[in-house]
Every structure is written in structure tokens, then in C-alpha cells.
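U., I forgot to send this yesterday:
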Amino acid sequence: MSEPIKLYSHKLGPNPWKVAIILEELGLKYETQFLSPQESAAIIEYLISEYDPSHTLTYTTSPEKYYISQWLYFQMSGQGPYFGQASWFINFHHEKLPSAQERYLNEIKRVLGVLDRALEGREFLVGEKCTVADLVFVTWNALIPWLFQNTLDTKLLYPNYHAWNERIIARPAVRKVLREKEGVNSVK
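Result:
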């Protein structure tokens, strides 16, 4: 590939940054252009299909490849919407609605509980390596301290989740993208 991939992204939302993590993990050259939100799951599935021939971030065997899909869909239908709604009602809605805030914060805790139970005795969600299933959770997970105003102790309440998240965010590609996101969002 001679030309870098053009990543259409936006500065605030977590979804395009998931795509950037996959691009980094695959060692692909890319340029970021900031626009309105894009559907990250379809983009990620395309990148894996087209640019991961050695299956670095996926599996081709059954049942692992289906478990990866299961976690991708859980992230898109569970984590993303609940974290997004919590973010909206806590930080942006024109009036404070404690019942909405509580509902979505409780849903985040439920998602964390699902991940914590799934990770018991495991280092990764699927198989014995970090896959796209693990990586897609990173950018929304990064919002937990902000959403809970640093009051949710994931290390104490969700120890399997916490250890897994620490492993994932320690990866060089993930660190690079999270630093880039932080830098872009700190520019006024």
C-alpha cells in the first residue's frame, strides 16, 4: 500500500479512535481528517478483512471468530450506547435528570460486570491473544473516570476487567492513539 489510508474522524467521540487503534495495531499508514461521526464497527470489520491477512487481531477458527463477533456486537449495542447516553445526560443535557443519569450509570456498571465475569481466569476476551474484540472497548472505557467523576473503583469492584483494561491500554499502539486523542482534544 503506497498511499496512506484516510481516516475520517471526529475529535470528541470515542468511535473513530477505535479505528485508529486498529490501524496502529496493524501498522498501517493513515492520515486523519476530522468530520462528523462515522460507523466504526463496519470500518473495523473491513480493516480486519482487508489488512490483517496474518490474523494478528482476529481468529479464523471456530468458535473464536464467532466470539469475536459476539464481543464486537456487545460493544456496539451495549457499551457504546449506554456510555454515550450517560455522557449526554450527565454532561450535556439542558436539564439535570437524576433518574436518567442513574439509569445509564447503572447500565455502565452492568456492562463492566459482564466483562469482569467473562474475563475471570482469562487475559483476553477471546482466545490467548489480544484481538479486535478487546481493542474496541478501549475508547469508551477511557471515559469511566470522567463519567463517574473518579468515584468508581474498577480495581476493587471489577478486578478482572481492571487488569484486562490495564493490559490493553499498555499496548504501544493503544497508548499512541490515546495520547493523540488527548492532544487533539486539549487544543483550544
